[in-house]
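Need a sequence for this fold. Nothing fancy.
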């Protein structure tokens, strides 16, 4: 790691790791909802199994990176500019972070006709505010957003090089 990756570069590299069948709302929206669920799962397991703070940070770094990947691809498909999570003011990042992330995910999940979303005010609001939720989770758990972007893109580019984009499991 160590390379600085901005959100526009990240998006270009993320799109290059996507299979053609992944570039549509029917895959991306449920996939993003699933990744947010994985963030909550890691937090729950950390409590149940008494993980160290470092282990939780490592686990969340991977899941938050996957959330950013889905967000970047949704922006690509919707022809929107991705927002850099670091650009959000502290006021948007200091509230009850997990509840807000769950609320935001519920709102996007409730918009069940994916293809009718583009252009709606609810869609644009959600796509504008979503990066702040990721940034706030990262801030609460003291994870650097740059590390999240770098880790995620390196993981995905490695999977692509090894022909492992399809399949299941975090360690493929």
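Here you go.
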């Amino acid at each position: 790691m160590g390379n600085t990756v901005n959100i526009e570069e990240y998006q270009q590299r993320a799109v290059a790791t996507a299979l053609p069948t992944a570039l549509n709302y029917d895959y991306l929206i449920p996939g993003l909802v699933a990744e947010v669920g994985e963030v909550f799962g890691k937090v729950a397991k950390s409590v149940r199994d008494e993980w160290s703070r470092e282990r939780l940070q490592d686990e969340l770094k991977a899941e938050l990176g996957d959330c950013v990947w889905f967000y970047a691809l949704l922006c690509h498909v919707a022809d929107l500019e991705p927002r850099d999570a670091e650009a959000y003011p502290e006021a948007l990042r200091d509230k009850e972070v997990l509840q807000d992330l769950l609320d935001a995910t519920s709102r996007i999940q409730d918009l069940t006709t994916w293809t009718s979303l583009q252009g709606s005010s609810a869609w644009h609001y959600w796509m504008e505010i979503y990066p702040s939720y990721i940034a706030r989770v990262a801030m609460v758990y003291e994870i650097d957003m740059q590390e999240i972007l770098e880790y995620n893109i390196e993981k995905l580019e490695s999977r692509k090089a090894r022909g492992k984009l399809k399949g299941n499991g975090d360690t493929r």
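For context: The mean pLDDT is 79.
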